[in-house]
Design goal:
Layout (H helix, E strand, L loop, with lengths): L2 E13 L4 H11 L4 E9 L2 E8 L2 H10 L3 E13 L4 H11 L4 E8 L4 E8 L2 H8 L1
Helix pairs in contact: 1-2
Length: 131
């Protein structure tokens, strides 16, 4: 059974250059903060990182000390069963409900759960649909 919650996601904008992932993860780790989920993409000369942590305020302070541009925005985090078809079931529910996604990312491990994080304009409806 999926478990959905509204989360705050750190959005960090950086130059698109080698070593930015290391710079970000080092800063957050050195601040003693655990990263729950992370995604990044480049667009021209800029890169954008979306990060969910256990302590966003502490992580953002650490990133600002590294002269990075950071902010927060709302997102949805869904804990799924780590089995074949779980992501498909979630995607089909969202599509059937007409929920438009801006982006999504996820992770899995050898455990029984996986995680999907996504951005949408209709967080309230997404939370209702996802459980």
């Amino acid at each position: 059974m999926a478990k959905a919650s509204k989360v705050k996601e750190i959005v960090a904008t950086t130059p698109n250059k080698v070593g930015m992932l290391a710079k970000i993860t080092n800063a957050i780790s050195d601040a003693g903060v655990n990263i729950i989920a992370i995604s990044a993409h480049a667009a021209g000369k800029k890169a954008k990182f979306m990060i969910v942590t256990e302590d966003n305020q502490k992580a953002m302070r650490a990133l600002r000390k590294k002269k990075l541009i950071v902010g927060e925005k709302n997102a949805v985090s869904v804990t799924l069963s780590n089995k074949i078809g779980s992501a498909r079931e979630l995607a089909n529910k969202l599509a059937k409900a007409g929920i438009d996604l801006n982006y999504c990312y996820g992770s899995t491990s050898s455990g029984s759960e996986s995680l999907m994080v996504f951005s949408t304009k209709d967080i309230k409806k997404a939370l209702e649909v996802c459980g």
